[in-house]
Design a protein that fits this description.
- A six-stranded mixed beta sheet has the order 6-7-8-3-9-10, sandwiched between helices.
- It has a domain of about 170 residues: Rossmann fold, CATH 3.40.50.
- Helix 6 links the parallel strand 7 and strand 8.
- The longest helix has 16 residues.
- It is an alpha/beta fold.
- It has nine helices and ten strands.
- Helix 3 packs across helix 4 and helix 5 packs parallel to helix 6.
- Helix content is about 40%, strand content about 25%.
- This is ABC transporter ATP-binding protein.
- InterPro entries: AAA+_ATPase, ABC_transporter-like_ATP-bd, P-loop_NTPase.
- Pfam families: ABC_tran (PF00005).
């Protein structure tokens, strides 16, 4: 579903994303990790068709990142690290608004809206302004709307920032459900325990992918007990090579 080959983004003399190469399979939960400034957001913007690469190649759901950016946008969902719904609209109004943007028919909107509200247990909150909801509910609603149109891929940019551990776990149950339906999930996170929930993860350091494998294999490779230890080992290695 995602295939990149030496994908690179430069801003003048600064190389934000340096020749990254990887593949992501259908229905896979793929974690994209790295410290702030490592190049994660730049890479995600290219994969979403929002930024044209400087060099290299990539296809998203079979579409070329240079020539078919509109087709890419029609086949993906996106949730930013900053809450992306309209807080001055109600829950139901947000669902209708974004469903309309995604091109759903009135009948599809009615059916999917009722199902989404039921699945999230928001029947009593449907007519409330989204701004009045707790952050955890906002994030779960935002994710559910991002996959409302049944995209082939959903991109999640640090989706659980600021929510409590219980809500984070509930959010990940939504991710598992989407993956079970065949949706490919591409997620960035700075919570190392969340990296363990992914099928595979890549770790970016200074614009390059320094490691890519399953969490178990990475821990074995770096003789680590946790993904925190793997991350710190890679960071120390990068400093020594400077």
């Amino acid at each position: 579903m995602i295939e990149t080959d030496k994908l690179t983004k430069r801003f003048g003399d600064f190389v934000a994303t340096n020749e990254i190469t990887f593949e992501v399979e259908k229905g896979e939960i793929f974690g994209f990790l790295g410290a702030n400034g490592a190049g994660k957001t730049t890479a995600m913007r290219m994969l979403c068709g929002l930024s044209i690469p400087s060099s290299g190649n990539a296809t998203i759901a079979g579409f070329d990142v240079y020539k078919q950016t509109e087709q890419i946008k029609q086949n993906i969902g996106y949730m930013s690290q900053k809450f992306s719904l309209y807080e001055d609209l109600t829950v139901a109004e947000n669902i209708r608004f974004f469903g309309g943007i995604y091109g759903l028919s009135n009948q599809q909107l009615k059916t999917k809206s009722q199902q989404l509200i039921h699945d999230l247990g928001l029947e009593k909150e449907a007519k409330k302004l989204v701004g009045s909801l707790p952050l955890g509910w906002k994030q779960k609603l935002s994710f559910s709307i991002a996959v409302l149109h049944e995209p082939k891929i959903v991109f999640l940019d640090e989706p659980t920032g600021g929510v409590d551990p219980i809500t984070r776990r509930q959010f990940w149950n939504l991710i598992y459900d989407a993956a079970d339906r065949g949706v490919t999930v591409f997620v960035t996170t700075h919570y190392m325990d969340e990296a363990e929930y992914c099928n595979r993860i890549s770790i970016m350091v200074d614009g390059r992918i320094k490691a890519l494998d399953t969490p178990r294999n990475l821990k074995n490779t770096y003789h680590a007990e946790s993904m925190d230890e793997v991350f710190y080992a890679l960071a120390r290695s990068a400093k020594r090579s400077e």
